């Protein structure tokens, strides 16, 4: 994260000291760098500038209305997976013709919203869904552009819980099934097949799975002689959560995508989420208590797995850094844990960490993607505040949920 640094012993995000923010804001809270969001988006756009794709930000990664507005002003569209995300994207000012609706189990009510709002594409994942869209469109006297999400059976070599492109995964239609369905699609008069879509997984750090998928799509489109307006190549581009990981290099892939687009005469859609928002955010938390264990000391934070689910859900590693540095060292191993009554409410084990005391503050890094969007009220805990920083300016983009209102519902 370029906009995160220490000035002396104190942690800064852009031009603001976390320590000073803590004088007015109680922990835990999320905080994001707006300029890092902008930098990430423009870097992605520049990588594929010769192709000039429609970049539909994956709203599921972070659906905060203000963040969607920032991206919308940069020209981003939205990839949504629910009626709620669709309406949020529109409220954020993203144009309907820049929205694609993905997801394996869309409801009739959600599809009606999409049809009535005249969005760019509904990416269908089953034959039944395509037939339902056709029937709804007929009743609403509309003709609807659809894409079909295919399962290319490509192993992205990522965590099993975020793999989506293998035959064993629930997402997309197999190529064999799609070929069979294609024979009958002309009988569905109120839909038009405008696109093919594919998404093979998330947090992918190697371009090989993307290149393989591109080849599968190219061969299929040629074989079936499809004349498409769009090919949606999905997202899944990874970031470096650890110092050992390297962010994916997309230069080779971008050249292949450019060739693919020109040869097939189609517009490309991408659906990046993590690569745009992942490294922009911190979760700031307070050390409530320190408890001695048999083999390590437990650093008990006020942030829990309800606030940040990724470590519990994916065994995900997120570096934890102090808000204020010191030169002393903790003795032995320490484990950062949260207050939720689950053994999985934990955030990482460290050796040789700096000396930690009760009432100190730490920051969990790279939480911009799937941090706040996966948070919940588990254990009847309020959703926490979110703050957006631009240089030396701070604004609240979500206030902490009121506990009394929470318990009254």
List keywords for this structure.
8-stranded parallel barrel; TIM Barrel; alpha/beta; Lyase, Ornithine Decarboxylase, Chain A, domain 1; 21 strands; 409 residues
Description:
The structure is a single chain. 27% of the residues lie in helices and 25% in strands. With 409 residues, the protein is α/β, with parallel strands linked by helices. The chain has two domains: 4-32 and 278-408, Lyase, Ornithine Decarboxylase, Chain A, domain 1 (Beta Barrel); 34-276, Alanine racemase (TIM Barrel), CATH 3.20.20.10. The radius of gyration is 23 Å and the shape is elongated. The two termini are 39 Å apart. Residues 158-167 have low confidence and may be disordered.
Question: Strand fraction band?
Answer: 25-35%
> Could you list the spans in which at least 5 consecutive residues all have pLDDT below 50?
158-167
Radius of gyration: 23 Å
Largest sheet: 9 strands, mixed
CATH topology category name of the largest domain: TIM Barrel
Number of E-type strands: 21
The number of helical segments is: 12
CATH class of the largest domain: Alpha Beta
Structural class designation: alpha/beta
The outline comes out as: elongated
Average pLDDT reading? 93
Helix % is 25-40%
In total, the number of domains comes to 2
Q: End-to-end distance, in Å?
A: 39 Å
Task: State the CATH architecture of the largest domain.
Answer: Alpha-Beta Barrel
Find the CATH superfamily of the largest domain: Alanine racemase
